[in-house]
Design a protein that fits this description.
mainly alpha; 1 helix; rod-shaped
Length: about 90
């Protein structure tokens, strides 16, 4: 019976190691799933920020154009005032 007991002990040891390996693999798989979820969230955030950046750039261009027009209008007004003052 000693051989049988040894075989049972080796079998039990093998089962324990297999169970531990399966548990480690399961933990790694769960960690990979969580990491993928975080990556997906970051990609969504990046897309949203890129869209917001595009909108802000567009608004900045629009405001710059308005500023240029206002500056030109102001320059014309100043020039007109100078002409009127020069004639007086």
């Amino acid at each position: 019976m000693s051989k049988l007991d040894d075989a049972i002990q080796r079998f039990n040891g093998s089962l324990d190691r297999l169970e531990a390996a399966i548990n480690r693999q399961s933990q790694r798989l769960e960690a990979a799933r969580k990491l993928q979820g975080e990556i997906d969230t970051l990609q969504d955030d990046r897309s949203a920020m890129a869209e917001e950046l595009d909108e802000l750039k567009s608004e900045a261009r629009r405001l710059n154009e308005l500023n240029e027009r206002a500056s030109e209008t102001l320059s014309n007004a100043i020039e007109g005032i100078r002409e009127v003052l020069a004639e007086a």
